[in-house]
Design brief:
This protein has 465 residues and is α/β, with parallel strands linked by helices. The chain has four domains: 8-141, Orthogonal Bundle (N-utilizing Substance Protein B Homolog, Chain A); 149-182, no CATH class; 189-247, 2-Layer Sandwich (Alpha-Beta Plaits), CATH 3.30.70.1170; 250-459, Vaccinia Virus protein VP39 (Rossmann fold, 3-Layer(aba) Sandwich), CATH 3.40.50.150. Helix content is 45%, strand content 14%. Strands 5, 6, 7, 8, 9, 10, 11 and 12 form an eight-stranded mixed sheet that branches. A four-stranded antiparallel sheet has the order 2-3-1-4. Strand 2 (215-218) and strand 3 (225-229) form a beta hairpin. The longest helix is centred in the first third of the chain and has 16 residues, at 46-61.
């Protein structure tokens, strides 16, 4: 494999996209962070930024489908090619297949020019031949009819077969297909109104004044949410800089609602970074009481503190610590509310992190053991009449329902809190019957939001562990 360091610096959007994609693969980095880092290197034309972003996220979203298509035009296995050549073919096929606004001749020309600049005459000739063959014989890219559901959905919507198979077993073919399709749509920006500094209506007006051409509307799912598209850099938005709002998905906002904290309470958030849910909790408490925000990574505590400061919140205290040992770290302390927003595979946020579907494997689901340990440790710190919320941003049963079921089986004095239905939006109650039992599994395509699991637990009346 040719090292990326020996390649010339990127001159345009397509070359920049190649650099990002190669680093994502070689460094096992998240695409959003790698893209942000690459774009920060110099001043790029906004059109180049948009194209680079489209190529990175789009190519990663359609990766196994693109590889399947490319294989029909190669005379030797793709594994025999240099790594950067594979990525060049992928971004070229992505443009030819999914981006109608770019002329085919421009895609071929740019692909060949990059091959000349990065490689040698033989490679550029091969790239030219493959891309022109693709233009002459586009029917080879058509997914054949009659494939088994797992294979068809995997290829049509570009998800790993193991994951598609698992989802079909859990949710059925129709739900799985809709979920995979939703995962390939670009996500909108969701903002949460800071109730300490104003109303949602005031926030909407402020954003519309600064972004008159943007699509801005109130969330239909959450009372403090705002949906925004074509926003540019949110970090430069006046409303954001002044702490009138923060970025948070609609499903994620429901976690704070589920916790239902009041002014003056003592609340624990055991896996808090970067602080979105902690700040939401503090806002719901009207900045009165205490929110102890913990995280295993000490350097991430600064993110929580910075977010709190920008939003005008003063009741958040931060502390580093392993959530699996929080009962030992906080011996003798008890809390009115506890949030366990557990580390997870993140397979509910594929829309926002398209590469996560390729980074995860079936073995990753063993994370449920860590989740269970965190839940048990945190639960011991809850006051007798308190409430505990367990949440994840995944849709995997092993990390969600199964963790809760095991906890209840091994802790007979605990139960799901059926009153959760009163603290979440009516839309959620109408869609999910399980909410009346005290938990809900939100799928991405149901509300065009992140996939999330939320369960609320409490001790049975008159009992203690």
């Amino acid at each position: 494999m040719k090292s990326k360091k020996s390649l010339p610096p990127p001159k345009n959007a397509r070359e920049l996209a190649l650099f990002v994609l190669i680093e994502v693969e070689e460094k096992k980095a998240y695409s959003n962070l790698q893209l942000k880092h690459a774009l920060a290197g110099k001043e790029w034309d906004p059109r180049d930024v948009n194209l680079t972003t489209e190529l990175v996220y789009g190519t990663l979203s359609r990766l196994n489908t693109l590889d399947w298509m490319i294989s029909h035009y190669l005379s030797k296995p793709a594994s025999k090619l240099e790594n950067w050549v594979n990525w060049l073919l992928r971004i070229s096929f992505y443009q030819l297949t999914y981006l109608d606004r770019i002329p085919s001749r421009a895609v071929v020309h740019e692909g060949v020019e990059i091959a000349k600049r990065w490689g040698h005459k033989g490679i550029s000739g091969m790239v030219n031949g493959v891309l022109r063959n693709r233009l002459r014989n586009p029917e080879k890219t058509e997914i054949p009819a009659g494939l088994p559901p797992v294979t068809r959905i995997s290829l049509e919507y570009s998800h790993p077969e193991w994951l598609v198979k698992k989802w079909i077993e859990e949710f059925g073919v129709e739900e799985t297909e809709q979920m995979c399709e939703e995962n390939n749509f670009p996500p909108e920006i969701n903002l949460r109104t800071n109730a300490l500094k104003g109303t949602r209506e005031e926030l909407l007006e402020t954003i519309k004044e600064q972004l008159p051409k943007a699509y801005v509307q109130p969330s239909k799912l959450t009372p403090m949410g705002v949906v925004l598209s074509e926003s540019g850099n949110i970090g430069q938005l006046t409303a954001y800089l002044e702490g009138l709002c923060t970025v948070q998905d609609e499903s994620s906002m429901l976690v704070g609602d589920a916790l239902s904290p009041f002014s003056g309470m003592k609340v624990l958030d055991v896996c808090a970074a970067p602080g979105g849910k902690s700040t939401h909790i503090a806002e719901k408490m009207n900045n009165q009481g205490t929110v102890l925000s913990m995280d295993i990574h000490p350097h991430k505590l600064k993110l929580i503190e910075e977010n709190g400061k920008r939003l005008g919140i003063s009741i958040i205290e931060t502390r580093a610590g392993d959530a699996r040992e929080v009962d030992r770290i906080l011996t003798g302390e008890t809390f009115d509310r506890i949030l366990v927003d557990a580390p997870c595979t993140g397979l509910g946020v594929i829309r926002r992190k398209p590469d996560i579907r390729w980074a995860k494997t079936e073995k990753d689901e063993e994370i449920h053991r860590i989740q269970y340990d965190i839940l048990c440790s945190a639960a011991s710190l809850l006051k007798p009449d308190g409430k505990l919320v367990y949440s994840t941003c995944t849709v995997q049963r092993e990390e969600n329902q199964d963790v809760i079921q095991r906890f209840l089986q091994e802790h007979p004095h605990w139960e799901l809190d059926s009153t959760l239905v009163h603290d979440l939006p009516v839309l959620i109650g109408e869609k999910y019957a399980t909410l009346k039992n005290g938990y809900v599994q939100i799928l991405p395509h149901h509300f065009h939001s992140d996939g999330f699991f939320i369960a609320r637990l409490k001790r049975k009346s008159g009992t203690r562990d």
